[in-house]
Amino acid sequence: MVYRLFPITEPDVEKYKALRLTSLKIDPASFSSTYEREVAFTPQIWTQRLASCFRRTFIASVKDEGSIDETWIGMISLLRPSELIPATLEPFERAGVGAEWDMYLVAGLWVHPEHRGRSLGTRLMKEGLEWVRTNMDPKNDSEGKRDKMILLVVGDGNANGRALYQKMGFMDLTSMPKGEGKTYMSLKVVA
Known about the structure:
single chain; alpha+beta
């Protein structure tokens, strides 16, 4: 099998939708959204998710050697500060997190269970970290170069996800109130 990672583009909306809905069905506890919510999204909402310059999604795919058919089996989605709604940032600001940082959010990292244990989650996270490191949010261009912080939420029952995030350098945000069944984590990325 050959694995490949790449940024998604707008023409891939149907493949992205299928992967996202599959992830929500297989691992509902790993996401803050639900299958029921997202299956009702209009085609316009799915397209907007991929067309936004403030969001980036990377895909992991697999194909058998010699085959031209490739199957999407994993993804990571990250949001720039301009994509985050104030209600998302409000709990962090209340806790005094990131006042001097541009806040990015991992909106989802998922690998199909049949392909776990092959470092695909690590590879996807590295792609996401590099995108954050090299991309300046237009909202803060006028303020000059600012350091960045990546935020994520991990379910308390997701030991493998937590281990991956810790291996990548993420730390628990102890200043954040502990959510019901979830922990906030962060990683500072110096520009």
